[in-house]
């Protein structure tokens, strides 16, 4: 192949995203699909291209999911052409950052590779295959369903949850369906594809290990190069740029494939998680050059901090606590799942919107669950900027996994790719080996089903920690979640390490959260429906009932509606009207989760965190999420905002008595008088006292409630209130359904503001769990608060953001302005 002299030796990257077409090549496809070649978007997926072409119904709507399962059972071909002319570079690579999943790549009729792993980047040498002029690139995808089925036979059965053998293929497990996700096994070029031209040498990887010693910062940059044959040594330059623009630079000559750059800075600003300080980021760039000029560049942002997840034996068992810059952090977290069933639709702006909601709910950590993806650079960049701590599972979830080839080699390759890509991010505090797999082996009957075969333990105890230590030596690793800290101890042991608490939702009612004091809760949750507007946008049942066909299809949990009912009726009556049912279940979800977190926070620092299942959803579904599949906040998000606040006051039982727990998770001391009052529902004060407390930053103080205050004379119509400053907590001695809760009596005043409305509500009776469900009047509206309890005479003002002109009666109607009073009095 002829070449011309390059004008520069600097590498170039050209995206190849244009001109793609898509067609089915085998499978039982509809006639109008089988006979057509349609435009394809790259990055993209088959599902989204078929939707764009109008060839399939939206899988999110009604029961359309079952109408499109044939897509995952079909083979697909992507095809494009691009022009290329010799550019003087002596290497040209096709780089596929993500192929989903079983792909064969050909260029100009010559096979370049077969791939079997969605979670890897593939770099394919193309220099000798490119031709001057027009080049044809074809990517053929085999059916992921058929491949997984065959692979499960080839490697031997391993137990798994749900109905596809997702554990036989390296593909996002939840893409085959979950108890909150739809079965939409995808194919496609779902990440960028580029033509990378380079000469002399290129940067293969950069791994900056960042440490601090007091105020001094140290960065050790491990640099791996790919060198052309007979390449001369290169000069590597590392530059660290401080927030004020000051630069620190170091050079090193690298003669070979690896090298190290060391950057030392006497004074650095630390990166802190939100609530502890500023999330200060530094720029880090690396260039390599030879005598002809710059060959390649790399740049990212880093942060100076120490971070460790401690599991240490103590008098109560084994701790589990996150420590950043020597400061223990009480984790106020949520689990993160893929934000869309079709992952290419998750944009940076959409991730930012979810993180806005996490911050709104006072969260400081997100756990990236192991049945999805190694999260995107956008996700980690934004968490770095906001000081949101992250925990990344390796991608093993709810199944047993073969440890032999070909899976073992694929696992090692994906781990090397992704640890190298993610490890520079200061927000990341933990690599975790798997989700529930050791626990499943112990308690879900897997051991006898495995029949002596490998099941993944070698990954979690050997391969993964070795790779993590090699590639990211300063990061903590745990073998599993839940994890008790010792392989000889049951994984989900309440006094040791992290636990998953699902018996409460599955079998026992949520008051039993108080039966134990776990050290750290990595999963727990309670189901609730999507917002009312989301249900109406995605389900067209007429009549719409909790058990109508579309509603049941959008409930993926086993016996989910029965569990919703069983978890409600001890606390609130079960309404017969669908809209009331929706409010009752939404309210109960919020109450159950808040109940648990208040209990655990009252026991800090013995308990050091909770990670609620889950922040987000991937489609419109009844689930455990606080934000539904269309991005709308459920009442749960507002309950989390309150219960995850820096300062919390809560009344809790201890033995046969009551205590007031005052939790100060702020950086300032909190002193003052706790005012304890027992009131009648009409606001009459029946007893009162004042207790002085003094809390240091990041501390908890528990004070006994005097016996006379706790001596309720009419439990059904009395409440105990504890108040310190602007914070307060309530203790109702009986369940709402058993109380004398009156009909909600209040006055409202609606006034227009820039960007929306203020809705002021003044209570003339006890009003419990006041919520403004603004999505019912504008699907895009938001409100700044919800789940507010008012005593007689108190006022709260809700700020509604909307672009629509709304009548006051729309915002104050009984179906929009909701209380738990309605549920109790309407039933009684």
UniProtKB/TrEMBL annotation:
So which domain of life are we looking at? Bacteria
Q: Which family does it belong to?
A: Belongs to the glycosyl hydrolase 2 family.
Q: Which Pfam families match?
A: Glyco_hydro_2 (PF00703), Glyco_hydro_2_N2 (PF22666), Ig_mannosidase (PF17753)
Keyword DNA repair in the entry? The reply is: no
**A GO molecular-function descriptor:** hydrolase activity
Q: Might you give the EC number(s) for this enzyme?
A: 3.2.1.25
Q: What is this protein called?
A: beta-mannosidase
Residues forming the Beta-mannosidase Ig-fold domain are 742-817
* Alphabetized UniProt keyword annotations: Glycoprotein, Glycosidase, Hydrolase
Ranges for the Glycoside hydrolase family 2 immunoglobulin-like beta-sandwich domain?
202-305
**What chemistry does it catalyse, as a reaction equation?**
Hydrolysis of terminal, non-reducing beta-D-mannose residues in beta-D-mannosides
Q: What class of enzyme is it?
A: hydrolase
What region holds the Beta-mannosidase-like galactose-binding domain? 20-191
């Amino acid at each position: 192949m002829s070449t011309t002299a390059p004008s520069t030796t600097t590498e170039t990257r050209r995206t190849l995203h244009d001109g793609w077409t898509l067609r089915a090549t085998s499978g039982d496809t509809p006639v109008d699909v089988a006979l057509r070649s349609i435009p394809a978007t790259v990055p993209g997926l088959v599902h989204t291209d078929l939707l764009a072409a109008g060839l399939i119904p939206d899988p999110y709507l009604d029961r359309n999911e079952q109408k499109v399962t044939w897509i995952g059972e079909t083979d697909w071909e992507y095809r494009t052409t691009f022009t290329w002319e010799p550019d003087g570079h002596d290497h040209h690579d096709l780089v596929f950052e993500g192929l989903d999943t079983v792909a064969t790549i050909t260029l100009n009729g010559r096979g370049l590779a077969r791939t079997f792993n969605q979670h890897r980047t593939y770099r394919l040498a193309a220099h000798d295959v490119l031709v001057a002029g027009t080049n044809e690139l074809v990517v053929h995808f085999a059916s992921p369903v058929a491949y997984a089925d065959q692979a499960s036979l080839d490697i031997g059965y391993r137990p798994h949850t749900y109905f596809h053998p997702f554990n036989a293929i390296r593909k996002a497990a939840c893409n085959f369906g979950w108890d909150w996700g739809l079965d939409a096994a995808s194919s496609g070029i779902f990440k960028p594809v580029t033509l990378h031209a380079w000469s002399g040498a290129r940067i293969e990887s950069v791994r900056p290990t960042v440490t601090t010693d007091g105020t001094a910062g140290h960065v050790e940059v491990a640099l791996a190069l790919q060198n052309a044959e007979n390449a001369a040594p290169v000069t590597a330059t590392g530059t660290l740029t401080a927030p004020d623009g000051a630069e620190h630079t170091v050079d090193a000559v690298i003669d070979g494939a690896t090298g190290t750059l060391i950057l030392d800075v006497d004074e650095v600003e630390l990166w802190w998680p939100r609530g502890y300080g500023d999330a200060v980021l530094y720029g880090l760039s690396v260039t390599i050059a030879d005598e002809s000029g710059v060959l390649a560049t790399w740049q990212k942002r880093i942060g100076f901090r120490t971070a460790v997840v401690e599991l240490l034996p103590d008098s109560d068992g084994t701790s589990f606590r996150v420590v950043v810059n020597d400061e223990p952090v009480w984790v106020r977290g949520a689990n993160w799942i893929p934000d869309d069933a079709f992952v290419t639709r998750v944009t940076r702006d959409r991730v930012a919107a979810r993180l806005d909601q996490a911050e709104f709910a006072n969260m400081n950590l997100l756990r990236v669950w192991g049945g999805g993806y190694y999260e995107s650079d956008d996700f980690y960049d934004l968490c770095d900027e906001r000081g949101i701590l992250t925990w990344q599972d390796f991608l093993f979830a709810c199944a047993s996994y073969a440890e032999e080839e070909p899976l073992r080699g694929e696992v090692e390759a994906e781990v090397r790719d992704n640890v190298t890509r993610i490890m520079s991010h200061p927000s990341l505090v933990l690599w975790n080996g798997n989700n529930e797999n050791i626990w499943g082996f112990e308690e879900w009957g897997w051991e006898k089903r495995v029949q002596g075969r490998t099941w993944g333990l070698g990954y979690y105890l050997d391969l993964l920690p070795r790779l993590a230590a090699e590639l990211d030596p300063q990061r903590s690793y745990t073998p599993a979640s839940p994890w008790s800290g010792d392989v000889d101890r049951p994984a989900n042991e309440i006094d040791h390490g992290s636990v998953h608490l699902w018996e409460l939702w599955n079998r026992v009612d949520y008051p039993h959260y108080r039966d134990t004091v776990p050290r750290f809760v990595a999963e727990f949750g309670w189901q609730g429906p999507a917002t009312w507007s989301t249900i109406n946008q995605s389900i067209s049942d007429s009549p719409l009932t909790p058990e109508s066909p579309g509603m049941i299809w959008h409930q993926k949990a086993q016996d989910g509606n029965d569990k919703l009912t069983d978890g409600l009726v001890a606390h609130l009556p079960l309404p017969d009207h669908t809209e009331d049912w929706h409010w009752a279940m939404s309210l109960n979800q919020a109450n159950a989760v808040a109940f648990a977190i208040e209990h655990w926070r009252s026991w800090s620092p013995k308990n050091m965190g909770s990670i609620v299942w889950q922040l987000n959803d991937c489609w419109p579904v009844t689930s455990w999420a606080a934000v539904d599949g269309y991005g709308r906040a459920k009442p749960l998000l507002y309950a989390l905002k309150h219960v995850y606040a820096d300062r919390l006051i809560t009344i809790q039982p201890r033995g046969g008595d009551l205590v007031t727990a005052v939790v100060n998770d702020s950086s300032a001391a909190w002193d003052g008088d706790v005012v304890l009052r027992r009131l009648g529902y009409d606001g009459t004060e029946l007893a009162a006292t004042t207790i002085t407390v003094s809390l240091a930053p990041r501390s908890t103080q528990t004070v006994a409630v005097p016996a006379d205050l706790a001596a309720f004379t009419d439990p059904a119509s009395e409440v105990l209130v504890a108040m310190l400053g602007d914070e307060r907590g309530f203790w109702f001695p009986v369940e709402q359904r058993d109380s004398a809760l009156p009909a909600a009596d209040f006055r409202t005043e609606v006034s227009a503001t820039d960007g929306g409305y203020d809705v002021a509500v003044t209570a003339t009776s006890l009003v419990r769990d006041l919520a403004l469900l603004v999505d019912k009047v504008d699907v895009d509206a938001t409100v700044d608060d919800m789940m507010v309890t008012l005593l007689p005479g108190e006022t709260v003002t809700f700020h509604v953001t909307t672009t629509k002109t709304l009548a006051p009666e729309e915002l104050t109607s009984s179906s929009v302005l909701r209380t738990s009073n309605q549920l109790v009095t309407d039933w009684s």
